[in-house]
Specification:
279 residues; alpha/beta; 9 strands; globular; disordered N terminus; binds ligand C2E; binds calcium ion; EAL domain-containing protein
């Protein structure tokens, strides 16, 4: 299948490609200031429970509202923050903000679990479990309300330390989810060794699954694999009613995607939830 999926190899210039570019240096300075100046914000994308139709889960996705560049997507600064080591500060900010929001929802009677994305660098950082412990305590949030999304590739750099961090997070009662499932290497070997609660099928298989029978086979097999291992299975990238219906037929547990809702600011999410649960 690899050949079929390889893209045309179009080169896209990114400031992070060039270690010494002035753009890269200024981006670093701006990213540092962004946190202090409150230019970062979290949006939340709902995940629909395909059995009950209800929404009790949302994923936090960081947004940078830059005064000049406008909305900078995370793909353009997360990898950069990882390379420079700034991700540690950024992730702490994300966790703090997401837990505060989770606590605020709970206080308002809105029972939402929140997923947080962490990167490879976070996993080899021995402080991560401590950071979670301190912030869970600060916001009086139960660990089982929080899902930590990690990609398989994040485990590859330093599998031993990454696994130690994951074990510590698991032991604290946090929920673990493998993101972009199916796109990394040796998925099965890792899955066997890791204690996780959920796999999230990568959107590259989900988006066109009703058009491409290979994609549908991959999605169907992944759902069966997850269930046989006792895991919850989520699908991201649900862009059509057809895909949503198909996932329900295939017994997938959760669906997330633009067809249901884009990531929203907290106010927008509240309004969306009221409408969703009204009918
Ligand atoms: P991800 O964790 O795989 O998140 C899913 C991405 O797919 C999000 O892009 C989301 O907006 C987008 N998406 C959701 N539904 C659909 C759909 O139906 N179709 C399509 N085509 N896309 C959909 P976003 O927000 O731009 O984030 C991109 C990536 O940046 C994330 O991928 C994640 O790896 C990273 N990221 C985002 N926020 C954070 C964060 O707070 N911390 C870290 N470490 N990484 C983050
Ligand atoms: Ca994710
Ligand atoms: Ca994903
Ligand atoms: Ca991704």
């Amino acid at each position: 299948y690899a050949g079929k999926r390889r893209n045309a190899g179009v080169a896209v210039y990114r400031p992070s490609d060039d270690q010494h570019s002035p753009d890269r240096l200024s981006l670093m300075g701006e990213l540092r200031q962004a946190v202090e100046r409150d230019e970062l914000t979290l949006y939340y994308q709902p995940k629909v429970d395909l059995t009950t139709g209800r929404v009790s889960y949302v994923e936090a996705l960081v947004r940078w509202i830059h005064p000049v560049r406008g909305m900078v997507p995370p793909d353009q600064f997360i990898p950069f923050a990882e390379q420079t080591g700034y991700i540690k500060v950024l992730s702490r900010w994300v966790i703090d903000k997401a837990l505060a929001q989770c606590a605020a929802w709970r206080a308002a009677g809105i029972e939402l679990d929140v997923s947080i994305n962490v990167s490879a660098r976070d996993l080899i950082n021995a402080d991560l479990p401590h950071t979670f412990a301190v912030l869970l305590d600060k916001h009086r949030v139960q660990p089982e309300w929080i899902w930590v999304e990690i990609t398989e590739s994040a485990l590859m750099d330093d599998p031993v330390h990454a696994m130690q961090t994951l074990d510590a997070l698991y032991a604290m009662g946090l929920r673990l989810s493998i993101d972009d499932f199916g796109t990394g290497y040796s998925s099965l070997a890792h899955l066997k060794k890791m204690s996780v609660h959920e796999i999230k099928i990568d959107k590259s298989f989900v988006i066109g699954m009703t058009e491409d029978s290979d994609d549908e086979t991959i999605v169907r097999s992944t759902i069966a694999l997850g269930h046989n291992l006792g895991l919850r299975v989520a699908a991201e990238g649900v862009e059509t009613q057809l895909v949503l219906d198909r996932l329900r037929t295939l017994d997938c547990d959760l669906a997330q995607g633009y067809f249901l809702s884009r990531p929203l600011a907290p106010d927008g999410l509240k309004a969306w939830l009221d409408t969703w649960h009204a009918d």
